[in-house]
Task: structure prediction
Amino acid sequence: MPELPEVEFFRHCLSQGRDNSPPILRENIREAELLWKGALAAPSPDEFLARVQGQTVERIGRRGKYLLIHLSEDTLVLHFRMSGEVVVEAQTEPVAKHCRLMLNFDDGIRLAFNNPRKFGRVWLVADPEALLAHLGPEPLSDAFTPERFYTTLQGCHRQMKYFLLDQKIIAGLGNIYVDEALYLSKIHPQTKSDTLSFEQAELLWKSIRQVLRDGIENQGTSFDWMYKGGNYQHFLKVYQRTGEPCAICGTPIKRITIAQRGTHYCPSCQTLSEK
Ligand SMILES: [Zn+2]
Result:
């Protein structure tokens, strides 16, 4: 959290603008302010501050849950981990309590990286592809096909919750969208990946893309302090709905812990077959 749809919404806001916050394309960085050094993964703070100064924002991208701000020389890569957002605002605004990094632009606006839980990280790199080479395919891209997905499923013997959270397998899914996609596909989160049939794999492939597209359309999912922009929380079927009736069969939604994450599912619709 934020997952692919939330980061995609940040990408959209930074490149297109939103309400009172303008886009940051073609903005020139007058100076950066590092309010918490721990947020910077690379390079060193001194090198970062010197190098980023004077660069211009050329393009905003996303890869999995990473937000990419392509500058004239380098790329600023942001990962939010547990919490946070990016905000474009006037430099006269008070600085948010959880702001870790600010880019002050020439024309009086700034980009603030707010990250309450402090797990988020920032990199300034010449080649973002090298940094992100470990990531699996983008789930909404043409490269992610049912056939490829089925082959990957067959290649390992792991519980589906672990499998789908693994960024090396698919880039961008987290706890919320994994629980929702498994529910739509009627697959128990502890099902072993190599026991799925091609039909199940294809349905799951479709469900993953559907929940992500719905999430993007609703500007992501909001949960109190974690991220505030979106509306998708109103459409979630199982995530954080423990005890509420399943929309299909009425059975109360159950919560178990897998991979140290709260995992939500319908015990009637998503049964575990012994294989
Ligand atoms: Zn059900």
Observations:
- The chain has two domains: 4-131, 146-265.
